[in-house]
Amino acid sequence: MGYSVRECIIQNRNYPDRKYYVGEGKIREIKKKLAEANVESLVINDPLEPAQIYHIERETGARVIDRTLLILEIFMRNANSVEAKLQVELAKLQYEIPLMREYVHRYKTGEHSGAYAGGEYMVDQYYNLIKRRAAKIRRMLEKYRKARELQRARRKELNYISVALAGYTNAGKTTLLNALAQENAYTDDRMFTTLSTLVRRINNSNLNLLLVDTVGFIDGMPLYIIDAFRATYEEIQFADVVLLLVDGSDAPAEIVRKMQAVVNQINQYMARFGNESQISKRMVYVITKADLIDGTKLAAVLQVVEMEMGVTPVVISAKTGEGLDALVRKIMAVSALDKETAWEEKQ
Ligand SMILES: Nc1nc2c(ncn2[C@@H]2O[C@H](COP(=O)(O)OP(=O)(O)OP(=O)(O)O)[C@@H](O)[C@H]2O)c(=O)[nH]1
Ligand SMILES: [Mg+2]
Asked: What is the pTM of this model?
């Protein structure tokens, strides 16, 4: 987000403090540091309870940005289509409603004063306004979802095989789409560069493959963000083949952690919205940025992934083109398998 980081503070605890997240002594220490260094914001790398945000802000006077709000800020900065903007706004409202409730509660019980000069009535009014806005956005997003559904049906009629580019944020999804479809979509070494889906046909006239770029995953992403982006994640749910991309230039343990985060979130999504559980059969694991890894590290990565995830990933570099042919072959094999299963199930 362009913040300059003054200091990182870590506290070892068995569990987070209910009131301040860190201990009471620690929060005073932080308060002192903030005042001395003239720092305005406190970023906390975990999602916080509304009451914790309230207490930390009240104690330190700093603006608290928890992990969820930071993700939302990045989303807000990067949303550039009408649909993505609405999705982010909805997620932001979902974030704010419980926080509002917390402040309203403190206000009503007299614990907090001044923040809502204008009185209880105004607060209630604002609260209702937020709820009405959220309902309105949901209705608008529903129209986009319907439109996507129609597009998918049309693609199916034309016998296209849809391939969703899913995976951790910054894994190289858009770069792969650019390489396979000779497209020029915007990529960047930052998180959540892509917030709108983009559908492109693969640049090979013999194959009816459609690539669908999607929003990346990150661990600790709350379900209501996934919820708000439902129309986007549906592209994964209904794809014939789902590529699960993870950055190969990370450490092996990090690669596994990211893969697990993505799989968990897709499973969470499917448990909520999906009615078929066979998505794992349609998944292809892809290790990206092979040009940044040497042979020894690659062997270590493959071993850890096979051991921990029980899968053999395809290794590619969108930059050099390495592994792209093998990936396309794998996609064709998985989609053929899918058709066979569907046929068998029908019998
Ligand atoms: N060296 C190397 N860099 C790559 C490769 N693929 C992607 N990158 C870089 O990785 C960064 C992220 O790439 P993107 O394609 O934007 O990643 P993404 O998965 O679409 O990211 P989000 O949309 O932010 O979730 C960019 O700086 C790319 O240039 C690759 O094969 N090799
Ligand atoms: Mg992208």
From this structure: 0.85
Residues in Cβ contact with 87 at an 8 Å cutoff, skipping those fewer than 6 apart: 79, 141, 195, 228, 229, 231, 232
Burial 186-212 (b: 16+ CB within 10 A, else e): ebeeebbbbbbbbbbebeeeeeebbbb
Q: What is the pLDDT of residue 153?
A: 92
Q: Which residue has the tokens 């201990």?
A: 23
Give nearest CA residue, ligand 1 atom 3.
289
Cα(140) to centroid(ligand 2), Å: 24
Higher pLDDT, 140 or 196: 140
Helix, strand counts (H, E) of the chain: 11, 8
Q: Is a pLDDT exceeding 60 seen at residue 142?
A: yes
C-alpha of residue 193 to centroid of ligand 2, in Å: 5
Q: How far is the CA of 229 from the centre of ligand 2 (A)?
A: 15
CA 170 to ligand 1: nearest atom: 21
